[in-house]
Design a protein that fits this description.
Elements (H helix, E strand, L loop, with lengths): L4 H21 L3 H26 L5 H31 L7 H4 L2
Length: 103
Amino acid sequence: MEIGLNHFLVLSTALFFIGVYGFLTRRNLITLLMSVELILNSVNINFVAFNKYLYPENLDGLFFSVFIIAIAAAEAAVAIAIIINLYRNFNTIDVEETDTMKY
């Protein structure tokens, strides 16, 4: 059995909706960050799959994926630094505790 474009699209859709569900239902900032990373990875799967099956002679989808991976790494580094700073100041990373985070 050959793996086709539909298999990649189902996987990408599942990852995207797991990420959206995690982003909308969780209160922990680390979990929200992981959910955003899942969403970005589902986009990468789409870029690579469409590049492979529609335009195999071009590398545009791969270049977009590498760019998104670099942006996601920078975003994760900045977000983790902000989360660590919030935890040091407020002793919590719960999103629901925003009343104590207002100045």
